[in-house]
Specification:
binds aspartic acid; VC0802-like; Carbamate kinase; 8-stranded mixed sheet; alpha/beta; 2 domains; binds adenosine-5'-diphosphate; binds magnesium ion
Length: 414
């Protein structure tokens, strides 16, 4: 088999831990498999590098920022390759440009366009373990790019897709994907198998155990993803195509995201074309608007509320003031915003065939006195925007209320 193993920051957080990684890779190779390893920066290193950048500028969407933050992975690949050698194996390190991980030029959030698997295949055919730097790529002009926080997951799955690997193992500091973040809810339960679709929703709604793009690639190229820990041999969570039995589980997981902000426009004239004119400047600036709610106010006016990524909130307000002053008011008196929000979501493919999940969710939040500011739903998820300070309480309440600490077969009703 050909196995891609991706080790997160904690698994390569010290030389001792890198020796453990080396031993694992070699054990896998000794079983007769070809092994390609993707590694993250040592834990804390990317934050340290970003801290240096932040002393000079806030904007991370910059060529030079990627030159800096990609260095953490350069150190890790070299050290892991040395650790494999020290353990008696053969290894070769590869930076993004050395296995041609070509991306677009969106610095700090680049997307992979193509990968040349040949240098990696050659190394593995020569008995070497290929050790690849996660998180980084190179654009058409040869500039170094990075794939966004958590991007080594995406490197791992993209390499697995390019090499047509049998599995991509993601080694992290928890032993699988849980019903919610086990660091927030200690009695969260490990999920044995989860569909790509549910994992996509969880990842996009805040569960950072896998970067969203890695799940998208896994689904697109049919790469089975096995999330597990490097500290034991216990099986973790398999992310795979949906299986019939999965629909029996109504709610698979609960998650929260803190990266959105809410913008409200009050007392808008209730006439056609207002929404179209308002969202145009945001779309032109590539700002993605997520939830939108319009309320009928008294006296023929409406209130319009929507969310944008928190990083884009300031620019969104500026753009609206500049481009549609007649809508937001000459002095911006009709526009207000709230950065202290959190979006809590429940996810499950079983929602397709079970009614009543929304009612239960709203009731559980109401019982705790948590006010819902916005709601959005899709076939397999329900999200509510609430005040940030209630996020952890909401997660615990929903996790308990939907019985997620119990085995799926023991969960009764909703
Ligand atoms: P790595 O450095 O290995 O990439 P991350 O910190 O990116 O690790 O991701 C692992 C973390 O994801 C866990 O420590 C946990 O706090 C968090 N997490 C959030 N939601 C979940 C979930 N549903 N299941 C497991 N872990 C989760
Ligand atoms: N080192 C990068 C980060 O901390 C990429 C990763 O670990 O996945 O975001
Ligand atoms: Mg991660």
């Amino acid at each position: 088999m050909l196995i891609v193993q991706k080790y997160g920051g904690t698994s390569v957080g010290s030389i001792e831990r890198m020796k453990n990684v080396a031993a694992r890779c070699l054990a896998t190779q000794r079983q007769g498999h070809h092994v390609a390893v993707v590694v993250s920066a040592m834990s804390g290193e990317t934050n340290r590098l970003l801290g240096l950048v932040n002393q000079l500028q806030e904007d991370h969407n910059d060529r030079e920022v990627d030159v800096i933050v990609s260095t953490g992975e350069q150190v890790s690949v070299g050290l892991v390759a040395l650790a494999i050698r020290a353990a008696g194996g053969k290894a070769r390190s590869f930076l993004g440009h050395q296995c041609k991980i070509i991306t677009d030029s969106s610095f700090s959030r680049a997307r992979i366009v193509s990968i040349d698997g040949q240098p990696l295949r050659d190394a593995m055919a020569a008995g070497e373990i290929a050790v690849i730097a996660g998180f980084q790529g190179v654009d058409e002009k040869g500039s170094i790019t990075t794939l966004g926080r958590g991007g080594s997951d995406t490197t791992g799955v993209a390499i697995a897709a390019a090499l047509k690997a049998d599995v991509c193992e993601i080694y992290t500091d928890v032993d699988g994907v849980y019903t919610t973040d086990p660091n927030i809810v200690p009695n969260a339960r490990k999920i044995d198998r989860i569909s790509y679709e549910e994992m996509l929703e969880l990842a996009s709604l805040g569960a950072k155990v896998l970067q969203l793009r890695s799940v998208e690639l896994g689904m697109k190229y049919g790469v089975p993803i096995h999330v597990r820990t490097s500290f034991s041999d216990a099986p973790g969570t398999w992310v795979v195509p949906e299986e019939p039995s999965m629909e029996k589980v109504v709610v698979s997981g609960v998650t929260a995201s803190r990266d959105e902000a809410k913008i409200t426009l009050e007392d808008l004239p209730d006439i056609p074309g207002i929404a179209a004119r308002m969202f145009a400047p945001l779309a032109d600036a590539n700002i993605s608007v997520d939830m939108i709610v319009q309320n009928q106010a008294h006296g023929g006016t409406t209130d319009l509320t929507f969310t944008v990524p928190k990083l884009d909130r300031k620019r969104s307000v500026e753009l609206l003031k500049e481009k549609v002053p007649d809508i937001v008011g000459e002095a911006g008196e009709r526009i207000a915003w709230d950065d202290d929000i959190s979006k809590v979501s429940v996810v499950g493919v079983g929602m397709r065939s079970h009614a009543g999940v929304a009612k239960t969710m709203f009731t559980l939040l109401a019982q705790e006195g948590i006010n819902i500011k916005l709601i959005s739903t899709s076939e397999i998820k329900i999200s509510c925007v609430i005040a940030r300070k209630y996020a952890e309480l909401a997660i615990r309440t929903l996790h308990e209320g939907f019985g997620l600490s119990l085995a799926p077969s023991e969960r009764t009703g909703l």
